Amino acid sequence: MQLLFRQRLFSWLDSYDIFDRDGNTVYTVKGQLSWGHRLQIYDAGGQALGTVQEKMFHWLPTFELYSHGRLVGVLSKELTFLRPKFHLDCNGWTVEGNLWEWEYRVMDGPCQVMTLSKELWNWTDTYLMEIARPEDALLCLMIVLAIDAAKCSQGKG
User: Fold this and answer.
1) Which residues neighbour 23 within 8 Å (Cβ) at sequence distance 6 or greater?
2) Please, what's the largest Cα pairwise distance for the chain?
């Protein structure tokens, strides 16, 4: 399953549209006013599905992932040199990025759950998500949002 994640050009708060390969809107993400990043995810019909909430007062960016109001995982940036790495407390999955922070992989042991590639030469942050199983799409989107917000929190977004 492919999804295209694109930040809106003119928005006071973080706002994103997520499209399928045919250009249809699958999800809409709206930032909400709060301490730290708080991103609410909606389906194409406007139903709330999930939330990505930054935990404050942590040395490195940390985000709680909620699906339908239930905590499903926590993503924390780890202190590393060269390659960005995140600790993901969810499903036993791991996240690792490349040196330039343009590509990421989410793994479940030896199996690839998702790849994330940043598309260059766009006006706003744009990522291509390749998701192995469609039922993992919402959780993968929450991980991507947390990674993008972590980069923004550290001045790299």
Assistant:
1) none
2) 42
The answer to whether 21 and 9 have CB atoms below 8 angstroms apart is: no
Residue corresponding to tokens 């991103």: 39
- List own/partner pairs for 7-13 with CB under 8 A and 24 or more apart: 7/124, 7/125, 7/126, 7/148, 8/124, 9/123, 9/124
CA distance 126 to 4: 7
Residues 6 or more apart from 137 whose CB is under 8 A from it? Answer: 1, 3, 26, 131
Measured between alpha carbons, how far apart are the two ends of the chain, in Å? 25
pLDDT score, position 33: 66
Residues of the chain whose pLDDT is less than 50? 10-12, 154-157
Q: What pLDDT score was predicted for residue 35? A: 67
